[in-house]
Design goal:
The chain has one domain. Helices cover about 70% and strands about 0% of the residues. It contains seven helices and no strands. Helix 2 packs parallel to helix 4 and helix 3 runs antiparallel to helix 6.
Length: about 230
């Protein structure tokens, strides 16, 4: 059983910077700026942290999988399953509890707009799927496990904590949106841990479910789109 790492000033600084970014109101929350404002900052911090510890991105899961066909199949199936779970199970249930749908009004410009659709899809696969998985699963989940210990219980605690943070990062979607994203974060983190801490499966699953969301929004059919 791995013991927790010693709490160093650098670890404290890392989490303090992440907390600062999440509580800062300096940036305005528009769709185009959400991934730019938070994800790039965290990925940059992650890169610095890895370099200072003598690690590379491949050490936290950005490495070639043993089988690309298997990875693609699992990632796509997981993404489709996540989208179905969200639309047909968790979202209706949360709507009954909170009496609100996720607030997606910031995405209204995508409806029927081909240029915005292409931009949204580009951001979906770069800053959302690729960037957020590097930031939240590759970096934050691993860093939290460093603090609490890389035992089974430690990874479980880190997974729950990271999922909460991922949900809170989507606060502009309201309570229902935050809970939905926390659930998604938990599933993506579980996929990451289940398949040997390789980032490609959650990247693919994330990209597929977000692509489905964007296409439904483009058609003007997504629940909660005002």
């Amino acid at each position: 059983m791995d013991k927790p790492n010693k709490i160093t000033p650098w670890i404290v600084l890392e989490f303090a910077l992440v907390a600062l970014w999440f509580t800062s109101d300096i940036r305005h929350w528009h769709y185009h700026l959400v991934p730019l404002s938070k994800t790039i900052d965290i990925v940059a911090l992650a890169w610095i942290s890895l370099r200072l510890r003598g690690l590379r991105w491949r050490d936290v899961g950005l490495c070639r999988p043993l089988s690309w066909p298997r990875t693609l199949a699992i990632g796509v199936c997981a993404g489709v399953a996540m989208e179905a779970l969200e639309l047909f199970v968790t979202q209706p249930l949360l709507q009954r509890i909170t009496h609100k749908l996720p607030d997606l009004s910031e995405l209204h410009d995508i409806v029927g707009n081909w240029k915005m659709l292409l931009l949204a899809l580009a951001l979906t696969w770069t800053l959302a799927a690729f960037g957020e998985e590097m930031a939240y699963r590759g970096y934050l989940l691993n860093r939290m496990a460093d603090v609490v210990g890389r035992s089974r219980a430690g990874w479980a605690a880190a997974l729950v904590a990271m999922s909460v943070v991922f949900g809170l990062a989507h606060y502009y979607q309201g309570a229902t949106g935050m809970i939905e994203n926390a659930i998604d974060g938990f599933i993506l983190g579980a996929l990451y841990l289940r398949f040997g801490r390789n980032l490609w499966i959650p990247i693919l699953a994330h990209g597929i479910t977000d692509t489905a969301d964007v296409l439904i929004i483009f058609a003007g059919k997504y629940p909660g789109l005002h």
